[in-house]
Amino acid sequence: MTNATNTADTIDWKTLRDDFPVLSRQVHGKPLVYLDSANTAQKPRQVIDITDAFYREHNANISRSVHTLGMEATEAYEAARKKIAAFLNIRADELVLTSGTTQAINLVAYSFALPRLKPGDAILLTRMEHHANIVPWQLIAERTGATIRVAEITADGELDIAALRTQMTPEVKILGLTQVSNVLGTVNPVAEICREARRRGIATVIDGSQAVPHRPVDITAIGCDFYAFTGHKMLGPTGTGGLWARREHLEAMPPFFGGGEMIREVRFEKTVFNDPPHKFEAGTPNIAGVIGLGAAVDYLSAIGMANIEAREQALLAYATEKLAQIPGLRIFGAAKEKAAVISFLVDGAHAHDLATLLDLDGIAVRSGHHCAHPLMQHFGVAATCRASLAFYNTFDEIDRLVAGIAKARTLLG
Ligand code: PMP
């Protein structure tokens, strides 16, 4: 491990790879090149070990038991909540732990929006949203009579901010906006947009799934109303993540799920709910997973998010330059501020065929619609290939990708 006093230039990135056991495996007889971190990130042994140790040494349910294991489990779980909150510069008692972004956005949709919206209201979403920040809103629109409006993008895949501004009319009650596009890599100016929305009384729901793992994120500085993120893309276990919401919202919102843990007293006549964030955390959570996410946050913090961002920007610049030299290869998304996600197509090759041939070379890229149908419709394609990078990738791996695509082109052409 390194520490945050290092810079991206002095960190030994290749040695850090040794922390990720899966990165040393072979696929089809070739060393694995994992370029699908936007889908899910690989896990360092620090996360794997702490999760394993929880089950071996401490396993108990949280918040209920006075016995030693129960208290240890509760303490470790709540310590992880504090760590995650500090990492994102928010208060721990404003952080609802969820199974990920999808559950977090659904919580906002059902608990915040459903009771508030009425016919004539509008929900504004951008063209580049993941289905997780579209479908819950459609379900709510259907039940409330609200309508969905779409903020469009430019040819480079950036939000058309001027148009977005004109779309923030009095009917708009909610704006759903991704901080970083999982397809285009576009980084949206969320703080500026949230400021504007707040002036107009529009509640903002930021999808931070692709931002938190790759750049320093200060949710308080963004100034949104809600911020959702997912643990498995930030080196943590699957089934973890969270929702930050302003305290005033958390107090006003009714619970979404009812059950154990989220109550203070239950009588058949009336139940008194627990305080936020526990009010929204019914049932037994992914205890080991959240503790693992705490370890992931420690790991990321030790490297330093600014260093991770710098490393990934260097990889992105190299990959973009090399890929652009491949004849017939088209890259989707050329935003000025872009994260290390490259969606592409090669003339004459279907995305799935290309991904399948790359897999035979040990190279894992995602092919498909990336849970962003409206964006695919915008570009008039059914699918793209996507190479998404993380700090543990290397320049050699990008060379392997470029060589793999060149080889696949000759086989498919
Ligand atoms: N939003 C974005 C931008 C994503 O990339 C993803 C994961 N592909 C999600 C939401 C959904 O995250 P999860 O499935 O972990 O809830």
Structure description:
It contains 14 helices and 17 strands. The protein has 413 residues and is α/β, with parallel strands linked by helices. It has two domains: 140 residues, Aspartate Aminotransferase, domain 1, CATH 3.90.1150.10; 253 residues, Aspartate Aminotransferase, domain 2, CATH 3.40.640. The strands form five sheets. Strands 4-10-9-8-7-5-6 form a seven-stranded mixed beta sheet, sandwiched between helices. Helix 2 packs antiparallel against helix 10 and helix 11 packs parallel to helix 14. The protein is globular, with a radius of gyration of 22 Å. It binds 4'-deoxy-4'-aminopyridoxal-5'-phosphate. 4'-deoxy-4'-aminopyridoxal-5'-phosphate binds next to helix 4.
